[in-house]
Here is the input.
Amino acid sequence: MSSKNAWYLRCSADEVGASAVLVGDRGRVHLAAELMEGSVLLNEDRGLTTATGYYEGERITVSAFGMGAPIAAVVMHELADLGVKRFVRLGTVMTVGETQLGELVVAHGAIRGESTSASYLPVEYPAVPDFALTAQLEAAVRAAGQPTRSGIYATYDGFYTEMFDTGVGVERVADRYARLAKVGVVAADMETSALFVAARALGVAAGSLCLASVAGTTNEKMAHADRVRSEAELLKAGFTALAASAMPAGV
Here is the structure.
């Protein structure tokens, strides 16, 4: 056993895979554990529920971070320090523009509207995913026959001030969504740009695939049963992409 345990995740290098999935809801970790073979629960401290198991032969660690860029970056940073090389964020986003509820949305990049990424690399640095891993995510979603869309995300810190209209904040949320849609943004979340930039700084690959579960302009939500079913497909697509990415070229 390694003597080095991650500060918050409380697991060691020999307990994690080379691939990892980052989710917000810790309930998705338990769902992921059911989809994997030989899964082992490693941590539940602070709600950072973490488990490792196998999917199509690839050892994958799944960690929950809760909400927001700061803690998502902490979890990625600790797993990268333990030796994880590939990360996929699997979560939910709010629709922007033509994006429809129930679509699985692959990020081609993200507007850096949060503050965490600036602590890793200067604001001039683009928030872009690993392109090979992103291609695997798109292939996995297509193969599963799920409704999908690819494009640019916008990532923010303030849910009730920048993403959900409460009348509080420096810009009307409706105006923000209209401005984003006009320049082709397809989704809004609270983590993707920070994870893309942190991954580049840490020297690891990252992609983001999320379920469009809430309409940005109306706050309409997916029906619960549809959301549960789609989240299972989301996890399977992410696992499939990570397993394919781990294969040697030409296999």
